[in-house]
Amino acid sequence: MNFIEKKLFFFFAKQELEFIHKSCSTIGYRPNVFSTTLSHLIATNSAHLIIPFLPIRDRLKEKVEETFGCEYELVTEFTGLISWSRGASIGWHSDDNRPYLKQRDFTAVCYLNGYGKDFEGGLFHFQDGEPKTIAPMVGDAVIYTADGRNTHSVDEVTSGERLTLTLWFSRDSSHDEDAKLILLLKENVLHKSNNVPWSLLPLPASDNMYWFSPHQASNQDIGFDIRLGRLHALGFDVYYSRDMNFGSDLSELLMEPMQLARRDQLLDHKFVNILHSLQVAQFYFWKACKSRAFTNEVQSGKAVRLSRSQSEKIAQVNSIFLKDTKLVETVFQSADQCYFNLATFSAAITEWEDYSCKLHKEILLSLPQWRAHQAIYSVKI
């Protein structure tokens, strides 16, 4: 059996999850696929970003239990944001088609963007039953059994980035994602001080988790770092003040403090690492750029004209981590950018800190109840 639920969640939730994915994703499990998991968010000091997942996660679990008549039987086995870029596809398969996946009983796929608007290709097909073909639309969810009764495929994405929130559910409590996440949260969250922005700065994973190359080739001479790639799609370059010795290992460079440049201007704000700058930049384009949410904020934003030596350092960074800008532009379509305003961007940095602190506080207030029930869910505070 398979079912389609129309417009299962609100537009704002879609935008927030899209912001999280574009800020935090790593290379996925298939060629041309990107992934953001809840365990990865916790591991990279961004545990507070699991909060926006919870309302729609709860709703999907309830809908699956209701549809298949298995109330109180299921645990969530996996939750992830998964995007498919140009070239990604998958042939006929069921979601439990490997010995290590046999615990998966049900699947829920919630579409965060739409066919024909945000991407081309990527149509979903069931081998049997109705509907045969699904053209993903924003807010729709497809739920089905994960076994061979619902063998399915996804056409190759030909342009854009197809984004879904995907969950698998199991009757086997030993595969409960929540129990594992609660242990990670206990280790990574409880020691932090409440409402301290510095404690909420993201920590990047290893560089190989961010390296994109065609068909997942291991060759570091082609491709790009997806963090620089997403910043490039937003119109930013990355500047490091220290001199680079090309004879040394530069793998830790992206962990160092850096600044953003835009066209011929160097922005004065210093970010703790590239993941920090990416989260702020994506937050700006989500919250501030089009809505003018921060127009009443008074912030001092400064920029200076790039010197020749600074431009050369930017070019050096790009030559190492952004080897193929044409590939970047193919994989990540340039944002539909509004006019960039430096003062608004400076205000967005403060708003990003407030946003992170608010979510972190919610984690701290919810965690005792999650530990008591061994389940992660929306807690009314």
Describe this structure in words.
With 381 residues, this protein is an alpha+beta fold. It is built from nine helices and 18 strands. The strands form four sheets. Strands 1, 2, 3, 4, 6, 7, 10 and 12 form an eight-stranded antiparallel β-sheet that branches. Strands 5-11-8-9 form a four-stranded antiparallel β-sheet, with no helix packed on it. The protein has a four-stranded antiparallel β-sheet with strand order 15-16-17-18. A hairpin with a 6-residue loop joins β8 and β9. α1 packs antiparallel against α6, α5 packs parallel to α6 and α6 crosses α9.
Strand and helix map with partners:
Layout lengths: L1 E4 L5 H14 L1 E2 L5 E5 H6 L10 H15 L6 E11 L4 E4 L12 E6 L7 E3 L2 E3 L6 E2 L6 E5 L6 E3 L2 E14 L6 H12 L22 E2 L11 E2 H8 L3 E3 L19 E4 L2 E3 L6 H15 L14 E3 L2 H14 L3 H7 L10 H32 L8
Antiparallel strand pairs: 1-10, 2-3, 3-4, 4-12, 5-11, 6-10, 6-12, 7-12, 8-9, 8-11, 13-14, 15-16, 16-17, 17-18
- Which series of helices and strands comes N to C? EHEEHHEEEEEEEEEHEEHEEEHEHHH
Largest sheet: 8 strands, antiparallel
Rg, nearest Å: 21 Å
Low-confidence stretches: none
* Euclidean distance between termini CA atoms: 37 Å
The total count of helices amounts to 9
- Give the helix level as a range of percent: 25-40%
Oligomer: single chain
The count of DSSP E runs of length 2 or more, i.e. the number of strands, is 18
Which structural class do you get from the secondary structure elements?
Answer: alpha+beta
What general form does the structure show? globular
Q: What is the strand content? A: 15-25%
Kindly report the average pLDDT value.
89
Cofactor: L-ascorbate; Fe cation
InterPro entries: Oxoglu/Fe-dep_dioxygenase_dom, P3H, Pro_4_hyd_alph, Pro_4_hyd_alph_FE2OG_OXY
Protein name: procollagen-proline 3-dioxygenase
Organism: Gossypium anomalum
